[in-house]
Amino acid sequence: NALPPVPAVWAQMSDTGWREEWQRRLETFEPWLLEWLAHPADDPVWRRGSVRTAQGEGYDRYTCPVLLIAGWADGYRNNTFRAIEHMEDWYLLAGPWSHKDPSTARPGPHIDCDHELIRFFDQH
Length: 124
Description:
Layout: H1 7-13, H2 18-28, H3 32-37, H4 44-47, E1 66-71, H5 77-84, E2 90-95, H6 113-123
Parallel strand pairs: 1-2
Protein backbone atom coordinates (compact mmCIF):
# COMPACT_ATOMS: atom_id res chain seq x y z
CA ASN A 1 0.00 0.00 0.00
CA ALA A 2 0.96 3.64 -0.05
CA LEU A 3 1.82 3.97 3.64
CA PRO A 4 5.26 5.38 4.36
CA PRO A 5 7.94 2.89 5.40
CA VAL A 6 9.17 3.06 8.98
CA PRO A 7 12.45 5.01 8.62
CA ALA A 8 14.45 3.04 11.21
CA VAL A 9 13.39 -0.30 9.74
CA TRP A 10 13.80 0.79 6.13
CA ALA A 11 17.36 1.98 6.78
CA GLN A 12 18.31 -1.57 7.78
CA MET A 13 16.70 -3.14 4.70
CA SER A 14 17.69 -0.89 1.82
CA ASP A 15 20.31 1.45 0.45
CA THR A 16 17.64 3.90 -0.73
CA GLY A 17 16.11 6.43 1.61
CA TRP A 18 12.69 5.90 3.09
CA ARG A 19 11.39 9.08 1.42
CA GLU A 20 12.28 7.71 -2.01
CA GLU A 21 10.54 4.44 -1.19
CA TRP A 22 7.44 6.28 0.01
CA GLN A 23 7.38 8.33 -3.20
CA ARG A 24 7.64 5.11 -5.22
CA ARG A 25 4.71 3.62 -3.29
CA LEU A 26 2.59 6.74 -3.82
CA GLU A 27 3.25 6.64 -7.56
CA THR A 28 2.75 2.88 -7.90
CA PHE A 29 -0.16 1.86 -5.68
CA GLU A 30 -3.73 3.08 -5.64
CA PRO A 31 -4.85 3.53 -2.02
CA TRP A 32 -6.80 0.41 -0.99
CA LEU A 33 -9.35 2.58 0.77
CA LEU A 34 -10.63 3.89 -2.56
CA GLU A 35 -11.63 0.38 -3.61
CA TRP A 36 -13.44 -0.24 -0.33
CA LEU A 37 -15.30 3.08 -0.47
CA ALA A 38 -16.63 2.19 -3.93
CA HIS A 39 -18.65 -0.70 -2.43
CA PRO A 40 -21.67 -0.76 -0.05
CA ALA A 41 -21.03 -1.86 3.53
CA ASP A 42 -22.65 -5.30 3.09
CA ASP A 43 -20.63 -6.09 -0.04
CA PRO A 44 -18.22 -9.07 -0.21
CA VAL A 45 -15.31 -6.61 -0.48
CA TRP A 46 -16.08 -5.39 3.05
CA ARG A 47 -16.84 -8.87 4.37
CA ARG A 48 -13.43 -10.21 3.46
CA GLY A 49 -11.83 -7.67 5.79
CA SER A 50 -14.15 -8.18 8.75
CA VAL A 51 -15.12 -11.01 11.05
CA ARG A 52 -18.33 -9.20 12.03
CA THR A 53 -20.51 -10.51 9.23
CA ALA A 54 -23.54 -12.73 8.71
CA GLN A 55 -24.33 -15.87 10.74
CA GLY A 56 -21.80 -18.58 10.01
CA GLU A 57 -19.40 -16.13 8.41
CA GLY A 58 -18.54 -14.06 11.46
CA TYR A 59 -17.32 -14.94 14.93
CA ASP A 60 -19.12 -18.29 14.71
CA ARG A 61 -16.34 -19.51 12.42
CA TYR A 62 -13.85 -19.49 15.28
CA THR A 63 -14.10 -22.82 17.03
CA CYS A 64 -10.55 -22.97 18.37
CA PRO A 65 -8.84 -20.92 21.08
CA VAL A 66 -7.94 -17.43 19.86
CA LEU A 67 -5.09 -15.22 21.06
CA LEU A 68 -5.80 -11.50 20.73
CA ILE A 69 -3.20 -8.80 21.33
CA ALA A 70 -4.29 -5.21 21.95
CA GLY A 71 -2.46 -2.03 22.74
CA TRP A 72 -4.18 0.80 24.57
CA ALA A 73 -2.58 3.24 22.11
CA ASP A 74 -3.65 1.14 19.11
CA GLY A 75 -6.31 2.60 16.85
CA TYR A 76 -7.84 -0.89 16.49
CA ARG A 77 -8.16 -1.66 20.20
CA ASN A 78 -11.97 -1.45 20.15
CA ASN A 79 -12.13 -4.30 17.64
CA THR A 80 -10.20 -6.57 19.98
CA PHE A 81 -12.43 -5.91 22.97
CA ARG A 82 -15.52 -6.25 20.78
CA ALA A 83 -14.29 -9.63 19.55
CA ILE A 84 -13.97 -11.15 23.02
CA GLU A 85 -17.63 -10.37 23.66
CA HIS A 86 -18.53 -12.80 20.86
CA MET A 87 -15.90 -15.53 21.19
CA GLU A 88 -16.06 -18.56 23.44
CA ASP A 89 -12.42 -19.50 23.96
CA TRP A 90 -10.12 -16.48 23.94
CA TYR A 91 -6.95 -15.22 25.57
CA LEU A 92 -6.30 -11.47 25.65
CA LEU A 93 -2.90 -9.85 25.97
CA ALA A 94 -3.41 -6.09 26.43
CA GLY A 95 -1.00 -3.40 27.48
CA PRO A 96 0.30 0.15 27.02
CA TRP A 97 1.64 -0.09 23.48
CA SER A 98 0.65 0.88 19.96
CA HIS A 99 -0.10 -1.24 16.86
CA LYS A 100 3.29 -2.95 16.97
CA ASP A 101 4.99 -5.96 18.52
CA PRO A 102 4.68 -5.56 22.32
CA SER A 103 8.35 -6.57 22.58
CA THR A 104 9.43 -3.31 20.94
CA ALA A 105 6.36 -1.06 20.74
CA ARG A 106 6.13 2.35 22.28
CA PRO A 107 5.40 3.76 24.72
CA GLY A 108 6.17 0.58 26.69
CA PRO A 109 6.94 -1.05 28.99
CA HIS A 110 7.87 -3.93 26.72
CA ILE A 111 7.01 -7.57 27.34
CA ASP A 112 8.47 -10.80 26.00
CA CYS A 113 5.76 -11.34 23.40
CA ASP A 114 7.42 -14.46 21.98
CA HIS A 115 7.22 -16.06 25.42
CA GLU A 116 3.49 -15.29 25.59
CA LEU A 117 2.90 -16.72 22.11
CA ILE A 118 4.77 -19.93 22.93
CA ARG A 119 2.88 -20.25 26.21
CA PHE A 120 -0.45 -19.86 24.41
CA PHE A 121 0.41 -22.49 21.79
CA ASP A 122 1.80 -24.87 24.43
CA GLN A 123 -1.53 -24.68 26.27
CA HIS A 124 -3.65 -25.11 23.15
